[in-house]
Amino acid sequence: MWYLIPGLGADERVFRRLRLHGTVHILNWLAPQSPTEPLMHYAARLAESVPLAESCWLVGVSFGGLLAQEIARLRPMARVVLISSLGGPHELAPVLRLAGAAGLHRLVPFGLISCLPRLAQWFFGARGGTEYRLLHQILRDTDPVFASWATGQLLAWQGPGLPGAVRLHGTRDRLLPAGAAPIDYVVPGAGHFLIVSHAAQVSQALNELASQLK
């Protein structure tokens, strides 16, 4: 059983190229109950879609990786896979930690991000054609209120990271670079849009991982 959690503002569209063996569920985002709803409280609400005694895989992409780790603390039968995500708050770039501490993310006009698709394309590492169009659509559809809340939670995340989480990361991730963090599946040349741009490789890695740990 797979439970997939997309990245900040994204939805099931980023998983359409995956070909996974078994039943797949998408954990779509819920609206925050307040601008200050804690990540752990939000994770508990999202976890209501995952049966307590079910053996399953939680696959979190980018910001979704934080939620996968928080949900797994509440669902001990779940195994976690992080794609283009953080294994712990210590992996966040120092400049982003400073921005979060200073509250600078509150000044970001999230509603205007969709007006800068080419800049976003560079940061996400999306290739042209269908990848660029998909990224543009996702940015256009992102709720600015949710984006502001999620960014604040990402920058303020205290963790700790979840031991045993399996990690997939691209070598050209400009948004959340892996740095010196240990990565189980390194994808050469892939950026932050790894889940889309290299979906075949991601699918193969996930299916192999699941078959090995049955």
Automatic annotation (TrEMBL):
SUPFAM superfamilies: alpha/beta-Hydrolases (SSF53474). It comes from Hymenobacter ginsengisoli. Signal peptide: none annotated. Gene3D superfamilies: alpha/beta hydrolase. InterPro entries: AB_hydrolase_1, AB_hydrolase_fold. It comes from the Bacteria. This is AB hydrolase-1 domain-containing protein. Residues 4-204 form the AB hydrolase-1 domain.
